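Hi again,

Forgot to attach this to my earlier email, sorry! This is the prediction with zinc ion bound. I've pasted everything inline since the attachment limit keeps bouncing my files.
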Amino acid sequence: MKKIEHIGIAVKDLEKSNQLFASFFGKEHYKIEEVISEGVKTSFFKSGPNKIELLQATNSESPIAKFIDKKGEGIHHIAFAVSDIKKEIKRLKKEGFTVLNETPKKGADNKLVAFLHPKTTNGVLIELCQEID
Ligand code: ZN
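Structure tokens for the complex follow:
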């Protein structure tokens, strides 16, 4: 694990939340990206070295829609940057973690991503992400 790459927050209305976080940070989001395969629209804010990802569902089957149905808006995941995602997946499986997608998939922000099941990480959904060169 290199560092926390970003923190993901599930929101109902991306436009409203963009305004909210723009007033919080004192600056606008720097990118909006839709990940069709995940049924999400995301936006990113930078705060010094840290990033916040807002996620809004684009359909009712989206993991974000299900999360909000169950828990409401709020922190959805913590993402850690790794340099070799395949190696980390192998290592973490061996350590007993449940990896939700063993084949890394293309996520937002030019990353390969994989998620660990919250039941094996004290209720926290953890995302591993590796920058795509
Ligand atoms: Zn994320």
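The chain is about 25% helix and 40% strand. The radius of gyration is 14 Å.

That should be everything now.

G.
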